[in-house]
């Protein structure tokens, strides 16, 4: 027969099977998912979207009290609150991307089990809706930044601040990539979702969110920070925003390579999983 | 005429692992992976048993579907019927790309959209209108497409008053209405529908069936329809695929297929009944009710009705069969016996056939008791052995149905 088939559903799996045309066709779904994620989180709350702002502020206040006022950790000339806020806002974006993506198959199995759409839409929507949250939180950071400057603080951003979007992109890639890898493994072995909670907590401390690098420098745990791409990301974002911190060319290249490889690996594994996860979840 | 095949299913099989996924899974996973990287065949594909829900098997793997092949033409409405666990939903899931087949291929010339247990994509906190957009997009529509059809969708759902209320306040029926409304305005080439009409009131079910008829008749779209509702299957489908234990039993026209399906449901009261009796000497083993030559439980007044009773006997003694007929209120309305017809059951007979040429009953549900007598004494009784439904029919042969509610019997009479 000389029939032309539109497409074939087959048991054979290609290693890379990414249909960009199809994802583009579903772009409206992506936007609607983003909208859903953003507006439904705080429905039926009095303060509504204000919670997006309150969360990082409270966290920063607590960190400042515990680590800087009580434990007396030196933040190297940067106002402790601003130091923590910068770290918390960036960290939150990465964390939300990671945890949001990591339980994607488990959380959406009802809908994934009923209709087909390109599965990758779901993690993409999480990264995008978190980007909006991140934008709101960043604005608050800027407001406090300006306040501290008028109060006579000497912190200033440096010219590398132009690269800030790249830092955000790297965080997104890392969160998305790691999240996709974990989400695929969670479909079979649920143990991982328990481990993830502890893992994220631990990762926060070795990612210099609340602790400056100087605390680790001569420590036997220094390697945990030296080979942690998130530590570089947080430190670098603080460096460009507040003009203070340690950076290195090795750190930049290492982080970039790491993020891109994790992302590609994530896509690969996610792609392999999405076809049959519904049988094993 | 050349057949315009829009969907071609070739040797689709689907294997599932039984039991829970636990520590044992890792060793199988590793073994499978080890075979795959050496380029060998998956060792677990060779094993596995056919999927019969009721029998216990030894294998850890079962084939939910095994070598399914069929073709669907453009504009055809194909019904897929079968008992619970026959593989209907698995087949639809593979067709709608929710899960992949273990082996085999499906080729299609059109976009497939599925309507599987509608409403799963709803977010309870969002309003009806917001959910129409979300659900439509999940099903593959663009925002612009939905906007142009929004009015129609709301109208069809009949939820105008609640459209700006969060869906969590909806009744379950309203959710289904809204979800079906969205799906009804989808425009795929092939629509896959899985038992959606179960919820919703009579008015809505009628509306939904009508809409699906329009989709196939006027728009020329192909519909694959799974249902246990034979009425809906009959009114919608031209062809039916009957699945049994994950395999294709038949693919034929709807009437024949429904008959086949009812045969599969022997235990359910569907015209055939098996008796498990340990009576000595002689016993009834099976009873069947037929309209002409087809097994059937739906009759019209004036139809012919045949009851066949199969026997197992180790004697040449005299046996007699009596049939008691009861109406839906449990009142005995007639009694038949071969001795009344002066007909002896042959000594070597393994089957007794009883026939009413022209069914003289008004509409209702009737039950048959069977009683086998050995040497003049009751020997083996089967209560409610068979049951059947009678609908108004043209008993008198005058071209119109007898009005129901006028008496219980139809009796030929002579007028001068």
TrEMBL record, chain A:
GO terms for cellular component: ATP-binding cassette (ABC) transporter complex. It is a multi-pass membrane protein. It is found in: Cell inner membrane; Cell membrane. Keywords: Cell inner membrane, Cell membrane, Membrane, Transmembrane, Transmembrane helix, Transport. GO terms for biological process: lipopolysaccharide transport. InterPro entries: ABC2_TM, ABC2_TM_bact-type, ABC_2_transport. This is Transport permease protein. It comes from Algibacter mikhailovii.
Automatic annotation (TrEMBL), chain B:
The keyword Ribosomal protein does not apply. It holds the Pfam family ABC_tran. GO terms for molecular function: ABC-type transporter activity; ATP binding; ATP hydrolysis activity. InterPro entries: AAA+_ATPase (IPR003593), ABC_transporter-like_ATP-bd (IPR003439), ABC_transporter-like_CS (IPR017871), ABC_transpr_TagH-like (IPR015860), Bact_Polysacc_Export_ATP-bd (IPR050683), P-loop_NTPase (IPR027417), Wzt_C (IPR029439). It comes from the Bacteria. Residues 45-270 form the ABC transporter domain. The keyword Lipid biosynthesis does not apply. Keywords: ATP-binding, Nucleotide-binding, Transport. One of its GO terms (cellular component) is membrane. PANTHER family: TEICHOIC ACIDS EXPORT ATP-BINDING PROTEIN TAGH. Belongs to the ABC transporter superfamily. This is ABC transporter domain-containing protein.
């Amino acid at each position: 027969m000389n029939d032309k088939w539109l497409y074939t559903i087959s048991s054979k799996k290609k290693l890379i099977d990414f249909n960009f045309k199809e994802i583009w066709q579903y772009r409206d779904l992506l936007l609607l998912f983003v909208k859903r994620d953003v507006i439904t989180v705080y429905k039926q709350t009095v303060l509504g979207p204000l919670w997006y702002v309150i969360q990082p502020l409270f966290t920063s206040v607590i960190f400042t009290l515990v680590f800087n006022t009580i434990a007396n950790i030196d933040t190297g000339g940067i106002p402790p609150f601003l130091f923590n806020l910068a770290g918390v806002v960036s960290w939150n974006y990465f964390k939300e991307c990671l945890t949001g993506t990591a339980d994607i198959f488990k959380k959406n199995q009802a809908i994934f089990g009923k209709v087909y759409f390109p599965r990758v839409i779901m993690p993409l929507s999480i990264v995008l809706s978190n980007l909006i949250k991140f934008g709101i939180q960043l604005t608050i950071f800027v407001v406090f930044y300006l306040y501290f400057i008028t109060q006579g603080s000497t912190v200033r951003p440096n010219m590398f601040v132009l690269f800030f979007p790249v830092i955000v992109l790297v965080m997104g890639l890392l969160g998305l990539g790691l999240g996709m890898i974990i989400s695929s493994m969670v479909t079979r072995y649920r143990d991982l979702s328990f481990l993830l909670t502890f893992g994220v907590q631990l990762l926060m401390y070795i990612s210099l969110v609340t602790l400056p690098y100087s605390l680790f420098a001569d420590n036997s745990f220094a390697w945990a920070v030296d080979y942690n791409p998130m530590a570089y990301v947080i430190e670098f974002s603080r460096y460009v925003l507040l003009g203070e911190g340690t950076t290195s060319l090795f750190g930049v290249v290492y982080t970039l390579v790491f993020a891109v490889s994790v992302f590609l690996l994530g896509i690969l594994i996610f792609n392999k999983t999405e076809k049959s996860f519904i049988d094993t979840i | 005429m050349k057949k315009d095949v829009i969907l071609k299913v070739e040797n689709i099989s689907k294997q599932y692992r039984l039991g829970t996924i636990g520590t044992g899974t890792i060793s199988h996973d590793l073994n499978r992976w080890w075979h795959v990287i050496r380029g060998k065949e998956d060792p677990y594909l060779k094993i596995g048993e056919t999927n019969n829900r009721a029998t216990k098997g030894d294998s850890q793997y079962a084939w939910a579907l095994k070598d399914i092949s069929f073709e669907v033409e453009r504009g055809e409405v194909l019904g897929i019927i079968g008992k619970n666990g026959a593989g209907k939903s698995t087949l639809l899931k593979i067709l709608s790309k929710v899960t992949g087949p273990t082996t085999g291929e499906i080729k299609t010339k059109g976009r497939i959209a599925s309507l599987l247990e509608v409403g799963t994509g709803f977010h309870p906190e969002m309003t009806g209108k917001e959910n129409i957009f979300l659900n439509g997009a999940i099903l593959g529509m663009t925002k612009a497409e939905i906007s142009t059809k929004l009015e129609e969708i709301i109208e069809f759902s009949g939820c105008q008053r609640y459209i700006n209320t969060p869906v969590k306040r909806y009744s379950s029926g309203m959710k289904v209405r809204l979800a079906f409304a969205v799906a009804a305005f989808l425009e795929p080439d092939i629509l896959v529908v899985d038992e959606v009409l179960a919820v919703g009131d009579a008015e809505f079910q009628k509306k939904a069936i009508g809409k699906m008829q329009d989709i196939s008749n006027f728009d020329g779209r192909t519909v694959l329809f799974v249902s246990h509702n034979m009425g809906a299957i009959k009114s919608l489908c031209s062809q039916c695929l009957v699945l049994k234990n994950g395999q294709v039993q038949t693919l034929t026209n709807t009437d024949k297929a429904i008959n086949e399906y009812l045969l599969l449901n022997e235990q359910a009261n569907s015209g055939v009944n098996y008796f498990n009796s340990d009576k000595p000497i002689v016993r009834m083993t099976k009873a069947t009710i037929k309209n002409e030559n087809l097994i059937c439980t739906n009759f019209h007044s004036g139809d012919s009705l045949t009851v066949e009773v199969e026997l197992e006997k180790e004697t040449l003694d005299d046996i007699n069969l009596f049939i008691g007929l009861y109406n839906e209120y449990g009142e005995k309305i007639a009694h038949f016996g071969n001795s009344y017809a002066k007909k002896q059951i042959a000594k070597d007979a393994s089957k007794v056939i009883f026939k009413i040429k022209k069914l003289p009953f008004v509409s209702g549900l009737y039950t048959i008791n069977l009683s086998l007598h050995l040497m003049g004494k009751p020997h083996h009784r089967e209560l409610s052995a068979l049951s059947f439904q009678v609908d108004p029919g043209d008993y008198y042969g005058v071209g119109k149905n007898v009005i129901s509610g006028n008496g219980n019997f139809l009796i030929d009479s002579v007028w001068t």
